[in-house]
Amino acid sequence: MSDAPNRFEGTLHDVTDARVAIVASRFNHFIVDRLVDGAFDALVRHGVSRENVVLAHVPGAYELPLVVQRMAKSGKFDAVIAVSAVIRGSTPHFDYVAGEAAKGVAHAMLESGVPVAFAVLTTDTIEQAIERAGTKAGNKGFEAGLTALEMISLGRKLSSAGY
Ligand code: INI
Question: Would you tell me how many other CB atoms lie within 10 Å of the CB of residue 90?
Answer without folding.
Answer: 14
